[in-house]
Amino acid sequence: MPRNSNNSTKRKMDLGEDLSSLFGKRSKTTSSNSSVNRSRSKAMEEAPTSFNQKKCIAWFRQYSPASSPDTIGPEGVEMFCRDLDVEPENIALLVLSWKMGAKQMGYFTLQEWLLGLTDLQCDSLAKLQGKLNHLHSLLLDSSHFKSIYRYAFDFSRDKDQRSLDIETAKAMLGLLLGRQWSLLNSFFQFLDQSRYRVLNKDQWCNVLEFSRAVDVDLKNYDVDGAWPVMLDEFVEWLKVNRGESNIQ
């Protein structure tokens, strides 16, 4: 996740011991007991490893300081990312924060931690490591993606500000739209030379809608549509630049 603090750690994670459930062989007893044992064994094999809240809380405490045991701060989040073997800029961390309903970037409260990890049924590092692909897959669902995108605005802004500063906005847009909006770099160039120094939430949300609705050639852009002035100006700027460079 983009953060204002220095969180660019790329160390390898020690996966620790394998937490996979190990089931013993069934003993040979009477046919009645054998049948019961087979049923129990089958149930154990089919049932997922149970979630243990106490274990999850103990895991949380590994990252929260003694002075504030119910809050993981920036140093703890960095350590958590290092152990999980993901960079803080990995979008999976943003999706995980969304799952938790985390209010502030760089911080997890115990309540947020339990909300997200209970939902994911993860009470250990190994279990969460196994859920990373699932977290990425949530981005493929358009409704989930829209919810995560909207969440990212409030999550990454300074809490005493209603808007998102341009540099943070660009970092988050790169994380969320970098692989799916071919006009993103052009939009960044527009922002760099524009009068805009912050994005408000309406502008932020409309950037997503614009990226989904407007073709790269801009032919289906409705000049009379209800787009924010910023996006009207972006379209005008892009048309001028394309004309100067003879790009069709």
UniProtKB/TrEMBL annotation:
Residues 1-47 are annotated as: Disordered. It comes from the Eukaryota. GO terms for cellular component: ubiquitin ligase complex. Pfam families: Cullin_binding. GO terms for biological process: protein neddylation. SUPFAM superfamilies: EF-hand (SSF47473). InterPro entries: DCN-prot (IPR014764), DCN1-like_PONY (IPR042460), EF-hand-dom_pair (IPR011992), PONY_dom (IPR005176). Residues 29-38 have a biased composition (Low complexity). Residues 51-239 form the DCUN1 domain. GO terms for molecular function: cullin family protein binding; ubiquitin conjugating enzyme binding; ubiquitin-like protein binding. Neddylation of cullins play an essential role in the regulation of SCF-type complexes activity. This is Defective in cullin neddylation protein. It comes from Ceriodaphnia reticulata. The gene is EOG090X0DAO.
